[in-house]
Amino acid sequence: MGPGGATARAHPHQQFGVRTVTVLIGQLFTGVSIGAVLLLIALGLALTFGQMGVINMAHGEFIMAGAYTTYVLQQVITAAGWSLLIALPVAFVVAGAMGVLLEFLLIRRLYARPLDTLLVTWGVSLILQQLARDIFGSPNVQTRAPELLTGNIALPGGITVANNRLFILALAGGAVVALTLALRVTPLGRRIRAVVQNRDLAAVSGIPTARVDRMTFFIGSGLAGIAGVALTLLGPIGPTMGTNLIIDAFLVVVVGGIGQLKGTVIVAFALGVLQATGEYLTTLSVAKVMVFIAIVAFLQWRPQGLFTLRTRSLA
Asked: What transmembrane ranges does the database entry give (predicted)?
């Protein structure tokens, strides 16, 4: 063959190396997207658990409420894009109101009794699941994703990135930024930080701790509603969808450090990448076991979590 007809072929080792890099980048993005979902779910838990020590097993049902809010809005607003945008603030308010109601009727009587809050909120979660079955039926339902979020973005090297995963990643980042600014800049955020550091001192300083607790529960539960909206982009929704997610969210909060937002962010993405890598190398079940073993080993080494809360308590 002449020079014009010669075909350059990559060495087999080079081809293998390119494929390996492509797969690793793809799995890294998958892990980051899983971490973004975990982060959205865990943000609200980190806020309420860190301030009040409440083990809220009904948090998963607030996620479900956000998902069903999207479903209901799509029955009224036929344009999927508009219904999704409207669902974000509406789901925040709906789930937040449910959280305030739960806090006012039950949880405020059980502060400093975490095991009691676990049992009570677990019972509430079962009631909410049955209520969802009565209203929407037991079978899962599907929502429509906006056309803009149904495709993929092709990157060099044969890597494809799903638009819906990118949206969830951006949504999680926006939620973290908004929550951080709210805690650092607003008067409510300063009150929340004061109550976390020393509840008794905050109370005698004139801060209405009961009102702060209620607003904290509203924000934390509202974030769960936003997570529910995001999950409608990944698959069908049903009455038990929150139950399958709540344990992973609690693990993120505990490993990150109680009440530590930065720890929650780091651990959510770390566990997402670990799970995605484990699924690629083995199976979903084995990957779950790997993640659990890694969490147990880490907590044996650092039982207080990745970061610890600095307080002004003298105890």
From this structure: 28-50, 86-107, 166-183, 217-237, 249-274, 281-301
